[in-house]
Specification:
With about 240 residues, this protein is α/β, with parallel strands linked by helices. It has two domains: about 1-160, SPOUT methyltransferase, trefoil knot domain (Alpha/beta knot, 3-Layer(aba) Sandwich); about 165-240, Trp Operon Repressor, Chain A, CATH 1.10.1270.20. It has helices at about 15-20, 20-30, 65-70, 95-100, 140-150, 160-165, 190-195, 200-215, 220, 230-240; strands at about 1-10, 30-40, 50-55, 60-65, 80-90, 105-110, 125-130, 185, 185-190. It is elongated and about 70 Å long. The structure holds adenine (ADE). The site of adenine has 12 residues, from strand 5.
Amino acid sequence: MIRFDILTLFPEMFTGILSSSILKRAIEKKQIEVNLIDFREFSTNKHHTVDDYAYGGGAGMLISVEPIHLALKTIPNLDNAHVILTSPIGKTFNQETAKAYSEKEHIVIICGHYEGIDDRIHHYIDEEVSIGDYVLTGGETPAMIIVDAVSRLVDGVISSDSIKDETFNNNLLEYPQYTRPAIYDGHAVPDVLISGHHAKIEEFKKYESIKRTYKYRPDLLEKANLSKEELKMLEAIKNEENN
Ligand code: ADE
């Protein structure tokens, strides 16, 4: 069981993802818990605003630290939680981060906002996390991505078989897969997959996984821990390309 608390000004944005498909089932089965906290409710001024002008001038407004801090203080056992702020300047989230987070019991995500946040927020967070090198209007979609990627790695949420072979395990992309019919519109499924020859099928999957990674993500291949046999496959793939 992993608990997420999400601090956001737009809790309604999460309705779709939390009420559909795998995350919905994970919540029902109490494998994950997701609490949405609208930190506007913690504004101490009568108009319920949460932003203000920046000291020193500059365009736009900034989110004040107070409503976020007050909202954080209502979360039970906060000292044992991992508190993150979504921000394009954070460390880039990847499958390794998702795996590490899935082993935690409690994650708090503060959704940043295009306006920016008073920098003193750093006294109340453990780290800033970006989901990639582009700028979004707010931290809600990043928070959804983090909850999704982490939740599917929580025990029991999806079958462990699905996780075993998937893309990014050992920094390799997943091999291509096919379902019926065996020939569609003249395009046939590779013969070996229909052969019933188990060892050959495993070899095909490994070879294709390395080939795909070499083609699409050579940067990952450099980080992959290839066995002797896999390195031989990589050599063969490179030769195949040169001929
Ligand atoms: N907020 C705006 N852009 C973002 C990004 N790329 N990652 C995380 N939070 C963000």
